[in-house]
Amino acid sequence: MEKEFNFVDSNMVSEVEITYKAKCKPSQRPEINDSKDCYDIFLKYWDADKIEILEQLAVLYLNKRGKVLGLAKLFTGGIDVTVADPRIIMVVALKLGATSMVLAHSHPSGCLTPSTTDISLTQKIKKGGEFLDIKLLDHLIISAEGYCSFADEGLL
Fold first, then answer.
1. Cβ–Cβ < 8 Å for 86, 103
2. Residues 52, 57, 58, 59: is their CA dihedral positive or negative?
3. What is the pLDDT of residue 38?
4. What value does the mean pLDDT take over residues 31-57?
5. pLDDT tens track for 104-156
6. What is the number of domains present in the chain?
7. How far from 74 is each of 5, 15, 61, 86, 110, CA to CA, in Å?
8. Rg of the Cα atoms in the chain
9. Strand, coil or helix: what is 153?
10. 8 Å CB contact between 35 and 60
11. Which domain holds residue 65?
C-alpha cells in the first residue's frame, strides 16, 4: 500500500521571506547622475584598509529614478582576483526591486585598465540584467587614487 504524502506538514516546506529595510525616506536617497557620483559613494563605503591589499567587488542598486536603494559588498578575493557569481548579484537586485545597478571592483595594484576577465564579467552581468529588465549602468574599477568607468570609456 502506498503512503500518501501530506502537503500540510509544515516541517517539510521552507518559508521564503522577502524583506528590505531602508535607512532613509525615498526622497533622501542619494541620486546617481554620473560615474563620479558612483565612485564617491563606493569609496565612502569601501574598506580603506583593504583597497590596496585585496580585490573586492560591490554593487550599487538603483530604483527607476536613479536613486540608491542600497550598496552590497558581495565578494572578496585575493591580491589580483575575486570570483563574482552573477546569480548572487541578480538575487540581490531582484530582492531590492532594483531597475538598474552599478558594479565596482578594486584593483589593489592601482592599475585602472580593465582585464579581459573584467570585460567578460561585465558583459555576462549586462546580458543577465537585460533578460530581467535590470540595466547595468556602469562598472567601475577603483583604487585609492582614482577610477575607470566602463561607461565613460565606451566599454559597456
1. no
2. positive
3. 96
4. 92
5. 999 998 999 999 999 999 999 999 999 999 999 999 999 988 999 999 999 99
6. 1
7. 40, 24, 12, 10, 21
8. 19
9. coil
10. no
11. 31-149
Task: Please state at what angle helix 86-96 crosses helix 116-131, rounded to 10 degrees.
Answer: 40
Decide if pLDDT at 61 tops 80. yes
Per-residue DSSP letter, 151? T
pLDDT of residue 8: 60
Contact 30, 67 (CB under 8 A): yes
Q: What is the DSSP string of 94-118?
A: HHHT-SEEEEEEE-TT---PPPHHH
The reply to whether 70 falls in a domain is yes
CA–centroid distance for 100 within its chain: 10
Type of residue numbered 133: D
What CATH number does residue 130 fall under? 3.40.140.10
